[in-house]
């Protein structure tokens, strides 16, 4: 049985290079129930490596783990972050739920290795990758049950994170909303 978080992980796992996605299972084995089934489902994704120049996949909210992982990479990565889950009841007693999601395409940027013109080009590439992801989500929204409830509204913002190996790129923020899916 998949969960909301496994669904989000799986949804975005098809974009980066498959080996970078499989690196998230770096323990190899786990005693946590469901780990092997989850790992197998990711290994067997029909769609994968859709944007192979995104070499790494980072998922979660634990800053220490994210910092450690990004400190060891030097190429584009897809970072999926999530936020609050909320529930509302309308006047007709219908319950809806929503979760905030953010997809960031970025790369570590060391000023000693690049100049400002390099940054323009590299962040433009990151934006193009992020727009490919956004367009794919929109295209598949009508076909995929889980995607049907993505909000029509979204924002794309610059991403600069000195604490993440000087990373620069772009972030797409949106919500998944639906009838009491939580």
Global morphology: globular
Number of helices: 5
Elements, N to C (H/E): HHHEHEEHEE
**Poorly predicted regions:** none
Mean pLDDT: 90
Q: What is the total number of structural domains?
A: 1
How would you describe the oligomerization state of the chains in this entry?
Answer: single chain
Strand content: 25-35%
By helix and strand content, what is the structural category?
alpha+beta
The N- to C-terminal Cα distance equals 14 Å
Alpha carbon gyration radius: 17 Å
Write up this protein:
This protein has helices at residues 4-13, 18-22, 35-43, 63-70, 116-140; strands at 56-59, 77-89, 95-107, 155-161, 167-179. A five-stranded mixed beta sheet has the order 1-2-3-5-4, with helices on both faces. The two termini are 14 Å apart. A hairpin with a 5-residue loop joins strand 4 and strand 5. The protein is globular, with a radius of gyration of 17 Å. The mean pLDDT is 90. The chain has five helices and five strands; from the N terminus they run αααβαββαββ. It has one domain (4-179). With 182 residues, it is an alpha+beta fold.
Write the layout of secondary structure elements.
Elements: H1 4-13, H2 18-22, H3 35-43, E1 56-59, H4 63-70, E2 77-89, E3 95-107, H5 116-140, E4 155-161, E5 167-179
Question: Which properties best describe this structure?
Answer:
31% helix, 5-stranded mixed beta sheet, 182 residues, alpha+beta, 5 strands
């Amino acid at each position: 049985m998949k969960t909301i978080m496994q669904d989000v992980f799986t949804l975005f796992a098809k974009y980066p290079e498959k080996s970078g996605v499989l690196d998230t299972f770096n323990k190899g084995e786990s005693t946590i129930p469901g780990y092997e089934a989850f790992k197998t489902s990711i290994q067997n994704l029909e769609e994968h490596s859709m944007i192979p120049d995104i070499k790494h996949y980072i998922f979660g909210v634990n800053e220490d783990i994210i910092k450690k992982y990004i400190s060891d990479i030097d190429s584009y990565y897809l970072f999926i972050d999530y936020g609050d889950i909320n529930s509302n009841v309308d006047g007709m007693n219908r319950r809806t739920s929503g979760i905030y999601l953010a997809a960031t395409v970025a790369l570590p940027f060391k000023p000693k290795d690049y100049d400002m013109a390099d940054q323009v080009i590299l962040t433009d590439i990151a934006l193009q990758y992020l727009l490919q992801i956004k367009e794919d989500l929109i295209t598949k929204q009508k076909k995929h049950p889980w995607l049907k409830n993505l909000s029509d509204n979204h924002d794309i913002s610059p991403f600069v994170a000195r604490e993440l190996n000087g990373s620069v790129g772009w972030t797409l923020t949106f919500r998944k909303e639906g009838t009491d899916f939580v």
